[in-house]
C-alpha cells in the first residue's frame, strides 16, 4: 500500500492526471479482483466445512443402515423357519394327520412370538433436522432414503397387524387352558419332568387339546403366509439399504 501511495503522489505532483486516472482504474480493478478472490476462498472454505458436516451425518446413517441390515438378516431367518414349520403343520391339519406329528404342531408355538423390526432412524432424523439436508435434495441418495423409510413404515404396519392378532389369540387361549403344563414341558429339562408326579401322557394330552383349538390353528394359518410377506418386505428393504450404502460411499468417497 505504501508503494501505491507513493505512485499516486508522484503522478499528482507531476500533474499527470490522465495517467493517474488510468492508475486509479487499475487500482480499483485490482481491489475488486482481490475481493472476488477472497470471497471465492471464503466460499470454498465454507463449502468444505459444509461437506465435512454432511459427511458426518451420512456416516451415522451408514452405521445405522448396516445395523438394520444385520437385524433384517436375523429376522428373515427366524421368520422363514417359522413360516416353513407352520406350512407343514397346516398341511397336517388339512390332511387330518396332525395327531401323527404332534411335535410339529408344538413347534409352531414360536409363531406366537411378537417380534418387531426396530430400525435405527436417528441418523436420518438428525440430518432432516439439520441445515445440511437441502444438500441432498433431488439426488439419488434422497430418493433412496425416502424409499427406505417408506418400506420401514410398511413393515411396521404389517408386523403390528400380525402381532396384534397373535396377542389377541394368545390372550383368549390363556382363558381357556391352564398353560402351566405346556410351559413346563417347553422350558423344563426332560429329566426333571420324568421325576414329577404328572405322567408324560398328560403333557401330550394338554398339548393335543391346545394345538387342536381354533385360536392356535388360526395363528398357524396366518403365520404360514403373512410371515412370507414380511420376509419379502425385509428383502426389499435390504436391497434399498444396500443402495443407500453405495450412494453414501460414492458421496463420501469411501
Write up what this structure looks like.
The protein has 254 residues and is mainly α. It has one domain (2-177, 213-252). The protein is built from nine helices and no strands. Helix 5 packs antiparallel against helix 9 (214-252). The chain is rod-shaped and about 110 Å long. It holds the Pfam family DUF6090.
Describe the structure using short key phrases.
mainly alpha; transmembrane; rod-shaped; 254 residues; 9 helices
Could you give a short description of this structure?
The protein has one domain (2-177, 213-252). It is 81% helix and 0% strand. The chain has helices at 2-13, 17-95, 102-107, 122-128, 140-176, 180-187, 190-194, 200-212, 214-252.
- Give me the secondary-structure category: mainly alpha
Q: What best-fitting shape do the alpha-carbon axes yield?
A: rod-shaped
Range of helix content: over 70%
Q: Element order, helices and strands?
A: HHHHHHHHH
Question: What value does the average pLDDT take?
Answer: 85
Whole-number total of structural domains = 1
Q: Unreliable stretches, pLDDT < 50, 5 or more residues?
A: none
Number of helices: 9
Strand content: under 5%
Distance between the termini: 47 Å
Number of strands: 0
Largest sheet, strands/sense/barrel: none
